[in-house]
Amino acid sequence: MLKRRPSGTERKSREWVKVGIPRFLNVWGTAPFWTAFFQSLGVGKVVFSSETSEEQYRTYGKGRVTMDSCYPVKALAGHIGELLHKDINLLVVPMIYSLPSFLKGYVQDTLSCTRVMMAPENIKAGFLREGDEFAKRGIRYVSPFVPFGEPELLPLYLYRALRSAIEDITMEEVKLAVEEGFKALREFDRKARELSLKIIRWCTTNNRPAVLILARPYHMDPGIGHEIDAEFQLLGYPVLWYNYLPLEDWLLNWLFGKDVEEGRIRHPLDISDVWTSSYSSNTNEIIWGAKFGSRLPWITAVIRLSSYECGMDQPTFTPVQRIVESSGTMFFKFGELDETKPSGSVRIRVETIAYYLQQYSQKIIEAKLKRLPPVPHQLVVY
Ligand code: SF4
């Protein structure tokens, strides 16, 4: 049943507001929230920048970066520069402090990387030093503080940031828009996890291996992750992403039931047995993904992606590799990903890994199956 908007909060038409949002960092993974949020506020349109590319960075971003950083942060300059050439009058660059996470309640916190949070301010500086590039084009730059991990605080921060640009906005409207944003995000998440379950069912039924990607959500961006996942798909290997794995109780109990029974963890989503400083959301999910991948028989290779100069990933490399390899699952890392895609070397490495997948997957599947109770009937498609 459709929920009626409380009286006094009828959707206003704000056709004149044209919102631009850079497709950067943790906007990957939260974009459905932003689209639904601004649609609920009745804006004229919401435009995202293109996916990251070398061309975008060279044309719009280079020379605007004021500090050295990892490429996913520097790439924001290209996104902002590109949006300045679009028909928008409100540029929204969220300062994402914490993230919505399925691990909430089982970890210490769901914070984003400090560079993710500060990127909007750092990169903005490059567009101000020779004059205000936003004002010159009649564009309002707004960078709301976004604590996704504390949804009850979100309306207040978004309202405070937006009221300077949209003067008739009310707190009630923002509260409703936040609800609609989260609803859209939950629905996207549900569909993505459903698709992952479909892939796993296909692998189970056909006894075929799959590859699991452990990365940051923005490595889904072709210009950041260099489409390494797509290379595996081209060779016929289904690909699963750690952040959209299925969370059905029967599946998690099959994979983690013994650990819970024997007291190693208190719940299938608990990672305290392998990771004690569980503050960073993406890191926590990578660690949990490694545990999932080491247990699910049809994941026979785990592929780790990481960007050049990523300080957050450094401490996780060894634990993740150990978790994966201790189960006999193959582990491969593409580290130091930067601005340029080394197409030739990526292809050679993917083909080499595909050779190993072909050679060893059946043995790995059999060995992993032996360590688990019988396969749940829900996984097999008859
Ligand atoms: S997690 Fe790594 S790649 Fe991502 S913003 Fe932080 S330092 Fe950069």
Automatic annotation (TrEMBL):
A Pfam family this protein belongs to?
DUF2229
Q: Which residues form the DUF2229 domain?
A: 18-243
Q: What is this protein called?
A: CoA-substrate-specific enzyme activase domain-containing protein
